[in-house]
Amino acid sequence: MKHLVSHLLFMTVFVVALSERTAIAQLDFEGEPINYLDAPSSDPVARLQKKIDSGEFKLKYDESHGYLPAVLDALGIPHSSQMLVFSQTSFQLRKISRHRPRAVYFGDNIYIGWVQGGDVVEVSAVDPELGAVFYTLDQDRTKKVKFLRDRGQCLTCHASSRTQGVPGHLVRSVFPDDGGRPMLGSGTFTTDHTSPFSERWGGWFVSGLHGKMRHMGNVYVTDKLDSQNIDREKGANVKDLSRIVDTTPYLVPTSDLVSLMVMEHQTQMHNFLTLAHMETRLARHYDSIMNKALDRDPDFQSDSTKRRIKAVSDKLVRYLLFSEEFPLKSSVKGTSSFTQDFSQVGPRDSKNRSLRDFDLEHRLFKYPCSYLIYSEPFQKLPAPVMKQVMESLNTILTAETPPEGFTHLSGEDRKNIREILIDTLPDLTTGWN
Q: Domain boundary residue among 212, 237, 258?
């Protein structure tokens, strides 16, 4: 009977995700010119695999965690980024529970999942043109070390309205029961930096201080007839997770609050970058076909293409500058070294300012412009999008009063962001002075 219930739950998750995928306007990324399933990827995992195949690099095996520590170190992912999720929302869901949560780690362009006793390490990397590319690494040390690329199964959940209609990433908040099974009938939330605190981290363990604000983490549904009524107070301001879950099997004993907040921002930022890449390539591909058919100049750009490029550029700029970010009602503080580890990476300007500097009193970052502006997916944006984005940024940052949608940025904010970008991205900000 228990196996039947588990099977029915899995089928429910699958059907809901599949219906959601087919019900939205999803980009045609499986055909020309993107060819998502067949195009080679140049993401960080693909590059690491080439080093392994050539003998340039070797992953060490750890008796307790398999290849996990070696993968994190090879890809430059800090152990302090660890977050623990106990909702059964991974394909290894049968091995996940409130007592055996899944560990998630991330770097700027990569995400890693590890399950106690799991057969594989779950890996997702960001390719500039393909978006999220999914891999598994077998934990059997007798087998050849090979990151096996997924060929479409992951897209059931990772290419939907929750990911902007492209192969992408998402952080979900659910109402879990005591076994970690999501009560789907109660609804779920896709969370990012705009999400109210009260809707975040259902099904996750959360270690950190957040004052009077309350979230959905650390607790589960006790009354299935009233599944939305969870005890948020019980899960609030937890500094030591060991009182609610055994953390000894994990690399660090934390599921850091600040790490969660950064990942929430980052996942959707990646999705908007992928959307900008794919929408532009598809529009230009269509133009090339029509230009040839109508014997027009090969470089002719239709009004439709111009509108599509402007639309995705505007979306990207709004998210890049934290438009509609949920304002913190209390200061927040993590319980690991993540805040320090994260801030130490990346360029600083001549005044020692960085887009990775935290605020954590009123908002996430001190200078609200995404640090992913330095990432490869941003740096490799198609030229028409890059031109539109950089012109929009300069207009917003130099306006006498902040334009509609950017009133959260004070004059001082916009001045600081502009100076940081000019100092640290001179090639992209040529002419801003």
A: 258
